[in-house]
């Protein structure tokens, strides 16, 4: 059984789902430490007539010290949610498959979800369904593991019964391969592709949120990403 992991990014890019598709089990790392600097957990890129369009979900950080990702609370002060929804409607007003996703956009920016991880996981599950990915998604918080680093990845494999851990090439230098050898767990690396597809607004921009792919290509997105 192949297992892979990733933090719960906000509206992730297609490569996030490519790795999930190759796995039997995809573990969402919701209890690891929230990064102190800029992070994909609270922002991602879409596209409008000006080029790449950043959308950021504001969260409470000041004075709270180190927090786990699933402890991070969304800041609902101001009109950012309404502005984000309007920005998406304008940017993708002519996208052929906007109607397939406008409902979740409205829910994302109107329901005032309290935790960033909950918001992101809901989005991830939505995109996973529309990309026709059958991989089971499991939250790290449900496994009760307390270790970190490469040992956490080993413990995930042992707890879930996986005999292979899949990581992207860029993570190679951060993973202790010797630990996997000692536990007789296969360690595999994959190069994440960057699919090219029809986009609105001129010159193609790679690795935007997977929503950009789905809004432009709809049901064809599965074939574009996985073939």
Task: Describe the sheet with the most strands.
Answer: 5 strands, parallel
Secondary structure: helix percent:
25-40%
Estimate what percentage of residues fall within beta strands.
Answer: 15-25%
Q: Estimate the global geometry from the Cα principal axes.
A: globular
- Low-pLDDT windows of residues: none
The chain-level structural class is: alpha/beta
N- to C-terminal separation?
A: 22 Å
Mean pLDDT metric:
97
Backbone CA Rg: 18 Å
How many H/I helices?
A: 8
Beta strands, count = 7
Helix and strand element order:
EHEEEHHHEHEHEHH
With strands numbered from the N-terminus, the spatial order across the biggest sheet is: 5-2-1-6-7
Give an account of the 3D structure.
The protein has about 230 residues and is α/β, with parallel strands linked by helices. The protein is about 35% helix and about 15% strand. Strand 1, helix 1 (about 15-20) and strand 2 (about 25-30) form a beta-alpha-beta unit.
Can you tag this structure with a few keywords?
alpha/beta, 8 helices, 5-stranded parallel beta sheet, two-stranded antiparallel ribbon, 227 residues
């Amino acid at each position: 059984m192949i297992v892979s992991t990733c933090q719960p990014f906000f509206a992730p890019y297609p490569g996030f789902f490519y790795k999930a598709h190759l796995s039997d089990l995809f573990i969402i790392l919701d209890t690891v430490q929230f990064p102190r600097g800029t992070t994909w957990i609270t922002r991602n890129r879409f596209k409008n007539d000006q080029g790449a369009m950043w959308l950021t979900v504001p969260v409470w950080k000041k004075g709270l010290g180190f927090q786990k990702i699933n402890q991070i609370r969304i800041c609902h002060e101001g009109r950012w949610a309404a502005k984000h929804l309007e920005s998406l409607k304008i940017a993708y007003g002519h996208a052929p498959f906007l109607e397939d996703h406008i409902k979740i956009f409205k829910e994302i920016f109107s329901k005032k979800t309290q935790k960033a991880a909950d918001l992101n996981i809901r989005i991830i599950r939505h995109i996973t369904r529309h990309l026709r990915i059958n991989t089971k998604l499991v939250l790290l918080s449900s496994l009760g593991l307390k270790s970190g680093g490469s040992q956490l990845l080993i413990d995930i494999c042992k707890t879930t019964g996986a005999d292979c851990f899949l990581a992207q090439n860029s993570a190679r230098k951060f993973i202790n391969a010797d630990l996997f050898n000692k536990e007789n767990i296969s360690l595999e690396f994959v190069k994440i592709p960057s699919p090219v597809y029809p986009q609105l607004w001129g010159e193609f921009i790679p690795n935007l949120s997977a929503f950009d792919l789905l809004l432009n290509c709809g049901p064809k997105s599965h074939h574009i990403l996985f073939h």
